Amino acid sequence: MIPESRVTPAPSTPPETAGARLDVEGVTVRFGGITALEEVSFSVPSGHVVGVIGPNGAGKTTLFNVVCGFARPQQGRLALDGSTFRPRPHRLVRSGISRSLQGLGLFPGLSVVENIVAGAGTTARTGWWSGLLALPRSDRDERELRERAEMLMDELDLTRHAHAQPGTLPYATSKRVALARALVSEPRLLLLDEPAGGLGHDEVLELGELVRSLPSRGAGCSVMLVEHHVDLVMAVCDELVVLDFGRVIAAGSPAEVRDDPAVAEAYLGAAVDV
Ligand SMILES: Nc1ncnc2c1ncn2[C@@H]1O[C@H](COP(=O)(O)OP(=O)(O)O)[C@@H](O)[C@H]1O
Ligand SMILES: [Mg+2]
Known about the structure:
Bound molecules: adenosine-5'-diphosphate, magnesium ion
Strand content: 15-25%
Number of domains: 2
CATH topology of the largest domain: Rossmann fold
CATH class of the largest domain: Alpha Beta
Strand order of the largest sheet: 6-7-8-3-9-10
CATH superfamily of the largest domain: P-loop containing nucleotide triphosphate hydrolases
């Protein structure tokens, strides 16, 4: 059971600056005859951690891809801080958004520290293209970026692996590299797709603590956490959205969602199918 104190949203309303607000309004995505998302609406309020859960095939990754700009909805819109938002994957960082993908998505040819620095993408003043072309960033940008990368490596216990190739590290360590890479740009909204996938029990607990700390990091960060590890989302999220067959079947606090019969049915149905 989750203690009641863990599931009630924080009493103090976060300040306006604490992370971006994301609104998903009536989003529908079809792949040929498959409706992956059907009129999905919910919000990630500023400074909140919102979990999107649902059985396999429910549409979680598709929703994640819509917010990243990898998938275009046939209907509906997104709003960031109240303004219509058409995400483009290569401009996300500039919009104050970072993501970590299901799996790792690290660059195998780069070291840990190089992978983390690469997460800054477009934030350095001279930009993404000069990064690709290996043109120098300004010394100050470069120094600040290195400092942020070093602080993150320290925080996530990666310092001793700084010059290792991600492929040589245990999976859980590589997952922390992927998180550090997502955080180095100091996002106002962090999108996580199944960050607990492949992690052991203690590693999931550590991840939960980190996610819980995100809203109060730096200038503040909101989080959309797509995850089918139910214990993790119950423990760290302010609100949950439950998808099943592309539709929102429940939404609310973790306690409300936990007690919702439609949610139990969706998960039990999935378990029986397996
Ligand atoms: N690129 C695609 N082309 C065709 N069907 C897809 C594609 N991506 C996802 N789907 C289908 O959309 C549904 C939702 O998938 P997905 O978003 O991956 O679910 P989840 O992440 O919750 O497991 C599934 O039926 C899946 O087969
Ligand atoms: Mg998925």
